[in-house]
Amino acid sequence: MSERQKRENRAGWLFMLPAMVLFITLVIFPVIMSLFLSFTKWNFLSGVSGIKWVGLSNFVKLLTRDRKFSIALANTFIYAVTTAPVSIVLALIFAYMINDKVYLKKFNRMCFFIPYISSMVALSAVFRFLFRSDGPINSVLIHVFHVSVVPEWLTSTSLCKIPIICVMIYAGIGYSLIVYMAALQNVPGELYDAAAVDGAGNVRTFWKITIPLVSPTTFYLSIVRLIAAFKVFTAINVMGMADTAPSIVTQIYTNAFGAYEFGNASAEAWILVFIILVITGIQFLAQKKWVVY
Amino acid sequence: MKREKQGTKVINTIWVTVCGCLFLMPLLWMLSSSVKSGPEVFADDFKWIPEIIRWDNYIKVWTNANAPFWRAMCNSLFVSVVSTLGQLLVSSMAGYALAKIQFKGKHAVFIAMMATMMIPGQATIIPKFILFRTIGLYDTLWSLILPGWFSITSIFLLRQFYMGLPNDLMESAKVDGADHFLIWYRVLMPLTKPVMVTVIVLSFINSWNEYLHALIFLPSNQLYTVSLAIQYWMNMTDEYNLMMTAAASAVIPVIILYLFTQKYFIASIATTGVKG
């Protein structure tokens, strides 16, 4: 090995040192340890000696007999398949409009973007409040729409997902909107001019030109927003719905830091990792079918 | 033709702006409730601006004896600033090495990092909890700061940017006898300002709004971050106006920051969406 190459190696690893120390202690080690714990039964309070190897039984139990976890799993899918598509579609429509079809561009962009950077804890607090049975949403239902029996949004087990879904969509649109606006800037204006010359209307142009041209962005956003939705925790926990409308992460949290069942909670965490990997994999396979480059 | 176009633009502006204002309503409602008295919040004759504006709600929340909001602000500010600076330094060095130094094992490291990118932080929170308990960082602000220093996204963004800088810049510095440290620090790093701004914005927002890690790692009142302080008001009181005061106190600084630096915010978010 040449002297020069040795110097490069030394410099390279020196530059990587801080990142590597953090990567090994805060990523690699925790990943291996949580994978190991997912095959054990361990109550943290029983100390290190309480760790018992149980093989796959945590996973088997969670996927076949644990009712609470299957509810959490189902809820998480509901959150994901509602919030991701709705927020992406709304973001595309408003990005398309705000990009060059309206005045007050900056003001409108701000309206949709501010919730994204606002604290999710604060937003969830506001939404819990809005959806109270005597809160503003129900007052509007009573006074404007003359509904006689108003829904109990927060206490009914079927309706209580709605405030959570609403706050997730509300907080998520801003991100997709900005990404779409950046993508739309790159659509060449000549394409629109050509469409106008051919007599294509606005709606047709939107379907035939805009949507195909931003499809790589749609692909990227659908992965990012689906994964974000699968990790939902804050909205549910702050609204106090970890019992009535649990998600995978609220289950991990309750199991790990309420009951200190670290083995079981780690297995739940790995089911989440598995789902995220599968989604990413599927999206990459499906990408060829509907993304136009 | 032109006039017709302008007409459509006006109509578009009207409905988009109405939707935009609807979008602001929850936040406006939060601000309005934050300066009301308790009974006024749910009063039947709703007013956006109460007759008496109760600024003292803010004084109550900010100077509460158990969990004063000013202390939560200081904690969050400290965590966000130190996390962000650390992340910037660590990512800039790693990004430079991965882009511009030909060292052995580079590809293996890069692939290992990219492979773990999909694993969410929530999945490894239990080992982190055990680790921080063992090394004594549990119940200190460092338990939020240290994880904030490492971000694969930031390393990736910086690496991509360094890759785009021409090698000639380095070669001429090398001829002058500069080593990698000087090249990085003096020649190339100053050129990466646009991405560094992106890293700063994303990291700051992330740590300012962090919730799950704070909830688990910071049980003491003295160490409450703004997220935990809002939750404290939600759990401790039936005074909804004060809850909204706490929520507004966390959101207002971010909005003000946005109004002054929107260009950077927008550019940063857009950068993450453009595939490298």
Q: Which structural class should the secondary elements of chain B be placed in?
A: mainly alpha
How many separate structural domains of chain A? 1
What is the CA-atom radius of gyration of chain B, in angstroms? 24 Å
Approximate strand percentage of chain B: under 5%
* Assigned CATH architecture of chain A: Orthogonal Bundle
- Uncertain runs of chain B: none
Greatest contact between two chains: A-B, 93 and 93 residues
Helix run count of chain A = 13
Give the fraction of residues assigned to helices of chain A. Answer: over 70%
Structural topology:
The complex is a heterodimer of chains A (293) and B (276).
Chain A (H helix, E strand, L loop, with lengths): L2 H35 L2 E2 L10 E2 L3 H8 L2 H34 L4 H13 L2 H11 L5 H8 L17 H25 L3 H9 L4 H12 L1 H16 L3 H5 L9 H10 L4 H29 L3
Chain B lengths: L1 H33 L3 H4 L14 H7 L6 H32 L5 H11 L8 H11 L6 H8 L2 H13 L3 H8 L4 H9 L4 H17 L2 H6 L8 H11 L3 H34 L3
Short structural summary:
Chain A is built from 13 helices and two strands; from the N terminus they run αββαααααααααααα. By secondary structure, chain A is an all-alpha fold. In chain A, α3 packs antiparallel against α10 (215-230) and α12 packs antiparallel against α13 (262-290).
What report would you give on this structure?
The complex is a heterodimer of chains A (293) and B (276). Chain A is mainly α. Chain A has a single domain, classed as MetI-like (MetI-like fold), CATH 1.10.3720.10. Chain A has 13 helices and two strands; from the N terminus they run αββαααααααααααα. A two-stranded antiparallel sheet of chain A has the order 1-2. Chain A is globular. The relative contact order of chain A is 0.13. The mean pLDDT of chain A is 90. Chain B is globular, with a radius of gyration of 24 Å. By secondary structure, chain B is mainly α. The longest helix of chain B has 34 residues. In chain B, helix 4 packs across helix 8 and helix 4 packs antiparallel against helix 11. Chain B starts with a helix and ends with a helix. Chain B has a single domain, classed as MetI-like fold. At the A-B interface, helix 1, helix 3, helix 4, helix 5 and helix 7 of A face helix 1, helix 4, helix 5, helix 6 and helix 7 of B.
